[in-house]
Specification:
The complex is a heterodimer of chains A (275) and B (288). Chain A is α/β, with parallel strands linked by helices. Chain A has helices at 43-51, 84-94, 99-112, 128-140, 158-173, 185-188, 208-213, 258-274, and strands at 5-14, 17-27, 31-36, 58-62, 70-72, 146-150, 177-182, 193-198, 201-206, 218-222, 231-234, 237-242, 252-253. The longest helix of chain A has 17 residues, at 258-274. The two termini of chain B are 29 Å apart. Classes of the chains: A alpha/beta (275), B alpha/beta (288). At the A-B interface, helix 5, strand 11 and helix 8 of A face helix 6, helix 9, strand 11 and helix 11 of B.
Chain lengths: 275, 288
């Protein structure tokens, strides 16, 4: 097992459209690295470049070159007209697994994903959460060193989400380097390292603790919208950002979470543009 | 039960053959409040919304919108934003607005700001964030007294999400009642009150703190977290990884310590408050 894997100084263009500009992202063995961002931020382009299905315009990509990686595309990429069994057989043959190894890996993964009872059902008839678990099982069949997962939990309910995270953590515990895209910051907080993308550029990067420690100025909380500084709602209360750290009457300082850190970084970028 | 609630389900029950999808659910949405309806797939969330919208009659119990049974008349006072957004992708933004305003008989709806700039663009050519804002503008265009929103901010970045919640909160402050269905932490925390559905019944309700209400998780720190994870996972515990720390919601610290000792793994254990999502999963498992 070697690594770490990842991309350095990566730029990707599709014709005239720029998808990524100078992005670096490291994925270490035995850990989960998360790429976060809204729709169109560049998450899929980054993961595809890492998986080798998109050619970088600039920058370098490192991934294991002797064995195939495990890859789950957004929207899962199972064959809906095949059964769970047939999907796994197909993936196993594509990875060149021998019959004996395929049989034992399949049995272990069907049990681990709690899909054993559904093994002869068409993938198209499985619930969203079960389909995602099947896609993950297919990507894990050959025990890849690098596992690349594009929004495996989008649209999946919380119970299935927890099960998917358990499978992902299990792969990391087994030694895999896992790169995972998500739109949910509470998920990203569980990763060992985080890269926040905004419009194709790195907005924040580091361990969740490093990202939080680097929030400039102070994040404040107030019962009503504070005047004069950027503010946003968190439930019935308001958060506000004091760029120079100066206090505000009626507001108290709070420890920011990743959601606050990203809002602050986006606001800072907007202010920078306006200036 | 107050007489002027905008939406009321009282003992609402819906069967599909053998399946009891919604089982004696009580729910109320008042003017000016944002209520979160939280549930996993198969919890009965979608069926309950269909009962409230009048798309399905209850098998038993009572559903009232603005004090009367759901009907075309009550629909005119309701704004609904489905997760799929419900836009016509082959029509422009302006054409979608014209269709919606004609259906609701309103005359003063206009597109503002950057939505005005894309009025001639086909909806299918818009990025998701803008599409979502068009759907918001349409759902709010007839100044509904009750808003029903299905995962209204999924897929957008935190700043856009904060701005969409500004719009939702402004509607509530203007007197509308808002019912949000979601299973995301970041949306649940924006609600005044949560109703958690599991297996067709109300499993918990109240503020986020009240729903978590004393649910604990065991935090496990170990230099050999991989082995700790493997041991706890093999025992069937709902273990999760946060950085290099493990968390086991709803578990007994003594039992966790015993399993780790049997596996010969040294670890520091702490009992900590569960997160909202962890509490939700513990509730859902208990109800199943």
């Amino acid at each position: 097992m070697s690594g770490p894997w990842g991309v350095r100084g990566l730029s990707v263009r599709y014709g005239g459209r720029t998808a990524l500009v100078d992005v670096s992202f490291e994925v270490a063995p035995r850990s989960v690295a998360a790429v976060v961002g809204g729709d169109g931020a560049g998450k899929t382009s980054l993961l595809r470049a890492l998986a080798g299905t998109v050619q970088p315009t600039a920058g370098t990509v490192s991934r294991p070159d002797d064995r195939p990686i495990g890859y789950v595309s957004a929207g899962s990429g199972v064959w809906e007209d095949l059964t769970a069994d047939e999907n796994l057989d197909f993936a196993g043959r594509a990875y060149g697994l021998g019959a004996g190894r395929l049989r034992s890996r399949k049995a272990a993964l069907l049990e681990r994903t709690e899909l054993a009872a559904a093994h002869d059902r068409l993938a198209g008839q499985l619930s969203g959460g079960m389909r995602q678990k099947l896609a993950l099982a297919m990507a894990l069949l050959h025990e890849p060193e690098l596992l690349v997962l594009d929004e495996p939990t989008t649209g999946v309910d919380p119970v299935s989400r927890v099960e998917l995270w358990r499978l992902v953590a299990g792969a990391a515990a087994g030694g895999a380097a896992v790169a995972l895209a998500t739109t949910y910051l509470d998920e990203a907080e569980r990763a060992a390292t985080v890269l926040v993308l905004d419009q194709g550029r790195a907005l924040l990067t580091g361990t969740p603790d490093e990202v939080l420690a680097a929030v400039p100025g102070r994040v404040l909380e107030a019962p009503a919208r504070p005047g004069g500084i950027p503010a946003w709602r968190r439930g019935a209360r308001w958060r506000a950002w004091s760029p120079d750290g100066s206090p505000l009457p009626g507001a108290t300082e709070v420890a920011p979470d990743l959601e606050d850190a990203v809002v602050v970084a986006q606001l800072a970028r907007e202010l920078g543009r306006a200036a | 039960m107050s007489g002027d609630a905008l939406a009321v389900a009282a003992g609402a029950t819906r069967r599909f053959g053998e399946l009891l999808a919604v089982d004696h659910v009580d729910l109320e949405v008042d003017a000016g409040e944002v209520v979160g309806l939280i549930g996993a797939n198969g919890s009965g969330k979608t069926t309950l919304i269909r009962l409230l919208l009048g798309l399905l009659p209850p098998t038993a119990g009572r559903v009232r919108l603005f004090g009367e049974p759901p009907s075309r008349r009550t629909r005119a006072r309701l704004g609904y934003l489905p997760q799929s957004l419900g836009l016509y992708e082959d029509l422009t933004v302006a054409e979608n607005l014209a269709f919606s305003t004609a259906a609701f008989g309103v005359h003063d709806a206009a597109l503002e700001g950057d939505l005005a700039a894309v009025r001639g663009v086909l909806v299918r050519d818009l990025p998701l964030g803008l599409r979502r804002r068009v759907a918001f503008a349409l759902a709010l265009g007839h100044h509904p007294a009750l808003l029903v929103l299905d995962e209204p901010t999924s897929g957008v970045d935190p700043l856009q999400r904060a701005r969409l919640w500004d719009t939702i909160r402004a509607s509530a402050e203007g007197g509308a009642g808002v019912l949000v269905t979601t299973h995301h932490m970041s949306e649940a925390e924006q609600c005044d009150r949560l109703v958690v559905l599991a297996s067709g019944r109300v499993a918990a309700e109240g503020t986020m703190d009240q729903v978590v209400d004393g649910t604990r998780a065991v935090e496990v720190r170990s230099g050999r977290w991989e082995e700790a994870f493997t041991a706890l996972d093999a025992a069937g515990l709902p273990v999760s990884l946060v950085g290099r720390t493990l968390r086991v919601p709803g578990a007994d610290p003594g039992a966790v310590g015993g399993l780790l000792a049997d596996a010969g793994v040294d670890a520091d254990l702490d009992e900590v408050p569960a997160s909202f999502e962890e509490a939700f999963v513990v509730l859902a498992r208990r109800a199943a």
